[in-house]
């Protein structure tokens, strides 16, 4: 069984994000970019499936600017077998919307016929949490989102999902789209020999036209603003005062 | 607790804009494209920040322990060492014939900086092993190489270097450890070695000691010294481990810094050893690794300063204290961040311009070593041999000074242990002492290297600097760099002339100025590097490549160094030209 893992190049989680002066988005020029952390978890899980003998091949795909190649090489260095880059934008500030990404992925799925698409639950830049679900709908496949455990047996996958207030375990028929959550695994560091091997692993470059998909935006960003700064707190004199405030002012108890 | 982020962008700039590695025409360099070096440095950075840096304070606090003859490293070191091994990092620039990855020494240097910054004491276990690997690789018989190298490349076995004895540090001619030949071709090694870094520990299955000792018939002084391989556990013909050898740890030293690295007294009580290289040529065998070993220590100097600087910078941005003299910059808060104050800026700029300049000098030095080793380039070999005492002495002196300055940014919080800044200063201190104390580096530079091969290498150095100055005649933007470099290099030449004129009739005059000369030359080397970096930055800006903010910052940092640090050259020259008299005026008993 093949596993397909979409990976997105996003602003590094350590970078302090700055909103562009005109409010049109965040500044990405010359900012450190890395693989979306949830996608890293998905790549790790795919490689583990291969190491367990469940998967036979791990294919990673990225949609975006040319520099996404680096992100794909990172996935190859972790242990993915082969990469596909769909060059869909020239400017690093162009974000391809979830629906367009889902359509492109559906195109890749038709060509590659994977048994599972393992995706991050969301990308940490826009936090849309939509691509995996849209892809499942387009393909008419089962979906299991927010996975914190995954076991594949025969033509079924058992997935433990992180839901409000607890964990839910479901069984889905394969092929399926599984989106992964933070606690599924801890991604490995790529070893130096694997970084070197990644140089010569195949990386195919495609365009949206190859899949007949129009990636022009359907959404309009009205405004991007920094989160409001936290207001100064107040010091309370006693426990009684605290309880009174929680009751009367905050209304939480 | 301090944190660390690998300066990948700066390293990439050096590799691709300054050194232009893919066009350098050195074996193995063509493969070092931007994507690849970035992937390697980023991943090394992840391991450094995620695994090594969090253990730095742990190592400092816990130190190593010796109980019933067994040395234990601090908690977590074993797992981290395993991660380094599994990641293949220990094999980076080793020979593929023995399981190495075969990357150039330059890449080993860049990755090495990252690991040293994150945890200097930890990285020494691997660093010493690499030194021993190099010695066996260069001087070993095919059988010795097959027996030891694969295990040392993987760091399943680690290595040590045993030179120092209680009465013999700088002056190895006083050595007493004896080697007696045995009928089977081995030697019995007897004596005591002290201060042996990574002498014993719980990170590897075996420790391969390289020991300098005197075998009969070699004569007096350093001439009679030979180099021996003395494994902790004897190795059977099939490669498995045999009996414990007669080598033991007498004690481990309590010391100022690098607590995570075990500094051991090693007792050799008739231990079995095998000759490495030629009999009575042990010093020569050690010398062939000297350049790499000393460059590695020069690297420790600025790598620790880099880690200290990163934290001092963050602190200067966070800590609110005092108001900017030109008016409040942070009016909503009771005070401005430290970074608004000109004296804090001076401090930070001194750190930043030193660290980036030293990184450039070290990378360039590593590239010269690759050129000399991989291309058999004698000019490169001559140049790097000349500069090694400068890279070692200047960079470790300044590295310590800058770590102390980083500590100063923290005020009282720099002095207490909680913030970790004291550790950087304490750790950086040893680099000025071991691998040849800095005074001895100055002696090597002035007493040996200047006159080596009829002064050919220093002349070549002056020519190179002259050419660099000339190359920017047509670019007014480069004037602050070219002019300062020209002045400084003239001062250096004048100092060298002074030594030449005095040297024969009054050798004390040359040696009294040797330390100043080492620093004078250090500043000239840094000036040369900043000139090259500024040139590369202007070119990238002109061509619209790269991050303009980064490049402009680079140029401004270089201007700072040229304007504020190169003037030290005049002071050093003035001191040198006073000769021996002021220094030697007092008779020893008058002190
Ligand atoms: C933590 C630590 C780790 C070490 N690791 C190792 C190791 O792994 N292997 C190993 O073999 N050794 C190791 N050493 C030893 C180290 O290399 C020596 O301490 C160093 O070579 C200096 O020798 P010494 O201490 O005997 O000082 P000395 O030789 O007594 O020198 C004392 C001072 O006198 C100066 N001096 C000496 N001779 C001259 C001269 N002719 N002209 C001008 N000045 C002179 C020196 O510059 C120095 O400042 C280590 C030491 C320490 C502290
Ligand atoms: C071991 C020890 C003993 C001590 N004993 C005492 C004691 O007995 N009693 C007592 O009251 N205190 C004591 N102190 C505190 C000590 O006096 C302070 O640490 C010192 O005054 C610096 O204050 P700070 O640590 O808050 O540093 P900060 O004030 O935060 O200064 C940090 C750095 O910023 C620089 N800086 C700050 N403001 C400016 C400015 N306007 N312009 C330029 N640079 C600036 C400083 O030079 C310093 O390098 C002690 C501290 C230690 C570590």
UniProtKB/TrEMBL annotation, chain A:
<dbReference type="GO" id="GO:0046395">
    <property type="term" value="P:carboxylic acid catabolic process"/>
</dbReference>
<dbReference type="InterPro" id="IPR000049">
    <property type="entry name" value="ET-Flavoprotein_bsu_CS"/>
</dbReference>
<feature type="domain" description="Electron transfer flavoprotein alpha/beta-subunit N-terminal">
    <location>
        <begin position="23"/>
        <end position="215"/>
    </location>
</feature>
<comment type="subunit">
    <text>Heterodimer of an alpha and a beta subunit.</text>
</comment>
<protein>
    <recommendedName>
        <fullName>Electron transfer flavoprotein subunit beta</fullName>
    </recommendedName>
</protein>
<keyword id="KW-0813">Transport</keyword>
<dbReference type="GO" id="GO:0009055">
    <property type="term" value="F:electron transfer activity"/>
</dbReference>
<comment type="similarity">
    <text>Belongs to the ETF beta-subunit/FixA family.</text>
</comment>
<comment type="function">
    <text>The electron transfer flavoprotein serves as a specific electron acceptor for other dehydrogenases. It transfers the electrons to the main respiratory chain via ETF-ubiquinone oxidoreductase (ETF dehydrogenase).</text>
</comment>
<keyword id="KW-0249">Electron transport</keyword>
<dbReference type="InterPro" id="IPR014729">
    <property type="entry name" value="Rossmann-like_a/b/a_fold"/>
</dbReference>
<dbReference type="InterPro" id="IPR014730">
    <property type="entry name" value="ETF_a/b_N"/>
</dbReference>
<dbReference type="InterPro" id="IPR012255">
    <property type="entry name" value="ETF_b"/>
</dbReference>
<dbReference type="Pfam" id="PF01012">
    <property type="entry name" value="ETF"/>
</dbReference>
<dbReference type="InterPro" id="IPR033948">
    <property type="entry name" value="ETF_beta_N"/>
</dbReference>
Automatic annotation (TrEMBL), chain B:
<dbReference type="InterPro" id="IPR009100">
    <property type="entry name" value="AcylCoA_DH/oxidase_NM_dom_sf"/>
</dbReference>
<comment type="function">
    <text>Involved in the assimilation of dimethylsulphoniopropionate (DMSP), an important compound in the fixation of carbon in marine phytoplankton, by mediating the conversion of 3-(methylthio)propanoyl-CoA (MMPA-CoA) to 3-(methylthio)acryloyl-CoA (MTA-CoA).</text>
</comment>
<feature type="domain" description="Acyl-CoA oxidase/dehydrogenase middle">
    <location>
        <begin position="161"/>
        <end position="269"/>
    </location>
</feature>
<dbReference type="Pfam" id="PF02770">
    <property type="entry name" value="Acyl-CoA_dh_M"/>
</dbReference>
<keyword id="KW-0274">FAD</keyword>
<dbReference type="Pfam" id="PF00441">
    <property type="entry name" value="Acyl-CoA_dh_1"/>
</dbReference>
<keyword id="KW-0560">Oxidoreductase</keyword>
<dbReference type="InterPro" id="IPR025878">
    <property type="entry name" value="Acyl-CoA_dh-like_C_dom"/>
</dbReference>
<feature type="domain" description="Acyl-CoA dehydrogenase/oxidase C-terminal">
    <location>
        <begin position="281"/>
        <end position="444"/>
    </location>
</feature>
<dbReference type="GO" id="GO:0016627">
    <property type="term" value="F:oxidoreductase activity, acting on the CH-CH group of donors"/>
</dbReference>
<dbReference type="GO" id="GO:0050660">
    <property type="term" value="F:flavin adenine dinucleotide binding"/>
</dbReference>
<protein>
    <recommendedName>
        <fullName>3-methylmercaptopropionyl-CoA dehydrogenase</fullName>
        <ecNumber>1.3.99.41</ecNumber>
    </recommendedName>
</protein>
<feature type="domain" description="Acetyl-CoA dehydrogenase-like C-terminal">
    <location>
        <begin position="461"/>
        <end position="586"/>
    </location>
</feature>
<comment type="similarity">
    <text>Belongs to the acyl-CoA dehydrogenase family.</text>
</comment>
<dbReference type="Pfam" id="PF12806">
    <property type="entry name" value="Acyl-CoA_dh_C"/>
</dbReference>
<feature type="domain" description="Acyl-CoA dehydrogenase/oxidase N-terminal">
    <location>
        <begin position="78"/>
        <end position="154"/>
    </location>
</feature>
<dbReference type="InterPro" id="IPR013786">
    <property type="entry name" value="AcylCoA_DH/ox_N"/>
</dbReference>
<dbReference type="InterPro" id="IPR036250">
    <property type="entry name" value="AcylCo_DH-like_C"/>
</dbReference>
<keyword id="KW-0285">Flavoprotein</keyword>
<dbReference type="InterPro" id="IPR037069">
    <property type="entry name" value="AcylCoA_DH/ox_N_sf"/>
</dbReference>
<dbReference type="InterPro" id="IPR046373">
    <property type="entry name" value="Acyl-CoA_Oxase/DH_mid-dom_sf"/>
</dbReference>
<dbReference type="Pfam" id="PF02771">
    <property type="entry name" value="Acyl-CoA_dh_N"/>
</dbReference>
């Amino acid at each position: 069984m093949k596993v397909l893992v979409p990976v997105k190049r996003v602003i590094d989680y350590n970078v302090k994000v700055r909103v562009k002066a005109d409010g049109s988005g965040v500044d990405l020029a010359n900012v450190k970019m890395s693989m979306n952390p949830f996608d890293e978890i998905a790549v790790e899980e795919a490689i583990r499936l291969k190491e367990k003998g469940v998967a036979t091949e791990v294919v990673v795909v990225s949609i975006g600017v040319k520099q996404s190649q680096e992100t794909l090489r990172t996935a190859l260095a972790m242990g993915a077998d082969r990469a596909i880059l769909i060059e869909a934008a020239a400017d690093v500030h162009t974000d391809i919307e979830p629906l367009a990404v889902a359509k492109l992925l559906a195109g890749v799925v038709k060509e590659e016929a994977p048994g599972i698409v393992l995706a991050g639950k969301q990308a940490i830049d826009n936090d849309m949490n939509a691509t995996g679900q849209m892809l499942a709908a387009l393909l008419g496949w089962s979906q299991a989102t927010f996975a914190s455990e995954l076991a594949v047996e025969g033509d079924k996958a058992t997935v433990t999902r992180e839901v409000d207030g607890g964990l839910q375990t479901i069984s889905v028929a394969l092929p399926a789209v599984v989106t992964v959550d933070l606690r599924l695994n801890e991604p490995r560091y790529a070893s130096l020999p694997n970084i070197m091997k990644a140089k010569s692993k195949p990386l195919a470059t495609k365009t949206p036209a190859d899949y007949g998909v129009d990636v022009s935006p359907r959404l309009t960003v009205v405004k991007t603003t920094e989160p409001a700064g936290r207001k100064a707190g107040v010091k309370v004199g006693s426990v009684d005062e605290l309880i009174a405030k929680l009751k009367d002012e905050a209304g939480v108890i | 607790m301090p944190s660390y982020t690998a300066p990948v962008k700066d390293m990439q700039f050096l590799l691709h804009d300054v050194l232009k590695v893919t066009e350098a025409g050195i074996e193995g360099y063509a493969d070092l494209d931007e994507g690849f070096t970035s992937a390697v440095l980023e991943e090394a950075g992840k391991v450094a920040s995620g695994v090594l840096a969090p253990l730095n304070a742990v190592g400092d606090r816990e130190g190593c322990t010796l109980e019933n003859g067994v040395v234990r490293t601090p908690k977590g070191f074993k797992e981290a060492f395993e991660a380094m091994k599994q990641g293949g990092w220990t094999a980076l620039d080793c020979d593929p014939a023995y399981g190495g990855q075969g990357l150039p020494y330059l890449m080993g240097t860049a990755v090495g900086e990252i690991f040293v910054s994150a945890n200097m004491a930890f990285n020494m276990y691997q660093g010493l092993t690499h030194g021993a690997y190099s010695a066996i690789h260069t001087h070993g018989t095919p059988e010795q190489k097959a027996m030891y190298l694969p295990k040392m490349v993987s760091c399943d076995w680690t290595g040590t270097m045993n030179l120092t004895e209680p009465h013999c540090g700088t002056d190895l001619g006083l050595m007493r450890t004896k080697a007696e030949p045995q009928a089977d071709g081995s030697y019995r090694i007897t004596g005591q070695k002290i201060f042996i870094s990574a002498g014993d520990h719980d990170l590897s299955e075996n420790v391969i000691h390289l020991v300098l000792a005197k075998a009969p018939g070699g004569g007096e002084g350093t001439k009679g010294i030979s180099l021996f391989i003395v494994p902790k556990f004897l190795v059977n013909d099939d490669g498995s481990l045999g009996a414990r050898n007669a080598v033991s740890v007498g004690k481990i030293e309590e010391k100022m810094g690098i607590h995570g690295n075990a500094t051991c007294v090693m007792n050799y009580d008739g231990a079995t050893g095998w000759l490495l290289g030629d009999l009575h040529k042990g010093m020569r065998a050690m010398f062939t690794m000297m350049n790499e070993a000393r460059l590695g220590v020069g690297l420790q100097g600025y790598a620790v300063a880099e880690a200290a600087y990163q934290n001092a910078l963050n602190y200067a941005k966070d800590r609110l204290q005092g108001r900017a003299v030109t008016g409040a910059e942070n009016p909503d808060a009771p005070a401005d961040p430290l970074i608004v104050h000109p004296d804090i800026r001076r401090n930070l700029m001194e750190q930043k311009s030193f660290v980036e300049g030293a990184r450039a000098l070290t990378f360039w030095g590593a590239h010269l070593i690759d050129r000399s080793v991989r291309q058999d380039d004698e000019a490169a070999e001559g140049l790097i041999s000349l500069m090694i005492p400068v890279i070692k002495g200047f960079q470790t002196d300044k590295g310590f000074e800058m770590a102390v300055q980083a500590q100063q940014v923290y005020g009282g919080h720099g002095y207490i242990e909680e913030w970790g800044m004291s550790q950087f200063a304490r750790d950086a201190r040893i680099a000025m002492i071991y691998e040849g104390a800095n005074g001895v580096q100055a002696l090597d530079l002035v007493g040996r290297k200047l006159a080596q091969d009829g002064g050919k290498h220093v002349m070549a150095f002056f020519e190179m600097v002259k050419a660099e100055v000339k190359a920017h005649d047509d670019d007014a933007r480069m004037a602050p760099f070219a002019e300062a470099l020209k002045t400084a290099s003239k001062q250096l030449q004048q100092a060298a002339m002074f030594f030449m004129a005095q040297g024969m009739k009054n050798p004390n005059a040359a040696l009294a100025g040797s330390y100043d000369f080492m620093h004078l030359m250090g500043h000239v080397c840094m000036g040369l590097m900043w000139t090259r970096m500024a040139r590369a930055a202007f070119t990238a800006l002109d061509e619209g490549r790269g991050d303009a903010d980064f490049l402009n910052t680079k140029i401004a940092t270089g201007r700072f160094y040229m304007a504020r640090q190169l003037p030290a050259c005049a002071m050093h020259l003035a001191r040198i030209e006073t000769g021996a008299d002021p220094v030697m005026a007092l008779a020893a008993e008058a002190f």
